[in-house]
Each structure stands twice: as structure tokens, then as C-alpha cells.
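A quick aside before the break. I want you to see a complete sequence-to-structure record at least once, exactly as it would be stored in a machine-readable document. Don't worry about memorizing anything.
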Amino acid sequence: MPAVRRDPREDPSDVSVWRAPGMPALAVMVAVGFVGYSLLMPVAPMWAALGGANATGLGFVTGVFMFCTVAVQLFVPRLLRRFGWAPVLVIGLVLLGAPALLHLLSDELAVVLALAAVRGAGFAILTVTGSSAVAELIEPARRGRAIGAFGLAIAVPQLLLLPLAPWAAENLGYPVVFVAATAPVLGIVAAYRVGRRIDGLPRHPDLEHPDLHGGLRRFAGLAPPVILLLGVTLAGGAMITFVPQLTANAALTVAGLLLLTGLSALTRWGAGHIADRHGARGLLWPSVLCTVVGLSLCAWSAAGLGRGAALLLGMALIGMSYGALQNLTLGLAFAAVPRRDQVTASAVWNIGFDMGTGVGAVIVGAIATGTSFPIALLCAAGVSLLTLPLAFLRSRAGGRGASVE
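That is the input. The structure line, written in C-alpha cells, reads:
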């Protein structure tokens, strides 16, 4: 008797999340998108520095990119309902990748900021649709592992390229980096496939015409995970932007970024497996403390009181918390709302992520310009510490009585 093939969505234990329908294309789309992001995140501020920008200006390169990301993220759910997933995904990759070559026109701060704004719009689409696609393609019981797989697709380009991008710009030339940063346009076919897959899924009426009863109260459960996320992404945005300014040792810069991105990848993957089995709550407060201690060590190193080992240890701790809290808080955000609000939860989570990254770069840059980098990093540590009480809150999933612990 021939074997009967079953739909993985009906019997998910048969299929790895890596092989679930739509997930391979999603991984490709996200990976090439983050190639462009990872190359220009540290290099765009360096390019502006060649044009004469000071630390405040360098912070604004990251800040404008993230501000425009956040602004467009607010409209992504509406764009998906209006135009469908496939065209929106394709447009997002074009906006993220195509402007990279235009950096060759000028290293003036105004030009770099304008290009950052356009790329930020594309990044907004990639981030919101990427994370919400996980919720569309994978059932809740395996969502932690799926978020981990999605996180690896994000983290591998960052692991390889964030540390090497500054070196490549200085040794191979900025034009090489700008050409490579157009990589997102190579993901158009994969993006189209992901979009067609999700557009073809059956729609519950509530997904097309959401019940607005209760207004913002429906989304109150999103506040704790998003604020926790803000605390760690503020640290990550600051360190990715300014670590080249914290040490004159290029090898130390590469090693620090490698530790941050590498450990972020590992903990984002591992935290999903632990959260699926034991819940997220026990991992939240240690992650917050890792952020605080890591920033303090980086400040100590920047003050000249510690050797390079302090900077590397600090970057390692920040990387661990950066990855773990991304996974944990995204899972908690999805659990806090009903299915019809999953795209909105993704948008809110991504707004928190990118706002933290942008604000971290701008504030740390501004404080460092007026005082010093050690003081700026200690201020960032203080902000992260303020989020610690939220790690002990007991949350309920979407008001439906399902504990997210």
C-alpha cells in the first residue's frame, strides 16, 4: 500500500522547520537582504567619516536609516493587505539593494543620509515581512525553532560580513563593498516565491477584516517584550556603529564584531529550542544583565582602564544577549496577540528593534561628542538596566489564558 504524504502543517513533527514549505525561499530572501544590510551598517558611517562627518554625524547615518525603517514599518501591514505579499517583498529588496552603488557619487554626509533613508524603507519591508512570514508558515508549537532558523539566516551574513566589512572597505576599496551591497536584488525570485506561497494560504475572515474592538488594549501585551528588546538593540546599534572608534587596533575591531555577531547567531538559535521546551521567562533576566555587564566592560576598555580583552569580553556578552533577546521577545510578541494580529505584532517588534538600534547610535554618538565614549556607553548600560523589571513580569498569550512561560 503506497505511503500517504501528509501536509506538514497538519503533521509538523515529520518535517524539519528548515524544509517546511516556503522556509527555504524565506531563508534565501532574508540572507541576501542582510548581506546588503551587514556590509553597509559599519561602512556607510566610515564613508561619511571620509567626507568629514564627526561622531554625531556618524550616529545619524545609522539613526536616519533606522528612523526611516521604523516610519515605513508602520505601513507594511497595510501594504500587504492592499497589494499582496509578492509585490511588496520584491519592492523591499530593490529599495534595500539598488541604492548601494549610489554611494560612489559622493561621501558627503547629506548624500549618505539620503541613501540611508531609501535603504531604510527597503529594510522595513524585509524585516516586518520576514519575521511575520515565520508566523504564517510555521505553527505555534515549532515557532521558537522556526524563529531560530530565521535568525540564523539573518545572523550568518552578519557573522561573516559585519566584522569584515570595515577591513574590506579599507583594503579592497569602498567600491567593492558598495557593489557587493547590492546583493538584496539577487533575492527577488526567492521573495516572489515566498510571497506567492503566503498569498495562496487560506485567509480567515478576521485576517482580512480585523476586529478593532478593544483598540490598543489588544496590543498591550506587546509592550514588555518590545521594551526589553529596545534595551539590548540600543547596545547593539551603538557597538556596531562605534567599535571602530573605540580602538585603533583593526584586528581587535574585527574580533569584537565577530564575537558579537557569532554569539548572537548561536544564542538566537539556541534560545528558540529552550523556549519551545521550557518557556522564555527564565532566560530573560540573565540576558538583560549580560547587556549591562557587556556595555560596562566596553566602557572600561574605552577609558583605557582595561586591555583589549575587556572589549572582547564585553562584545561577547552583548552578542549573547543580543541574539537571545531577539528570539525570546519575538516569540513573546507572537504569543501576546491572536493570529489575525501576527503581522502587526511583527511590525511592532521590528519597530522596537530598529528604533533601539537607531536611537542607540544617535544618543551614544551625541553623548560621546559632548563627553566621551566611556560615559556614553555607561549611559546605554543604565538604559538597559532599567528594563530588567520587565523580565520578571508574567505574561499571558493574547489574553487567552495561555502562559508564555
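Two observations worth writing down. Residues 1-13, 204-214, 396-405 have pLDDT under 50 and may be disordered. The two ends are 44 Å apart (CA to CA). We'll return to this after the break.
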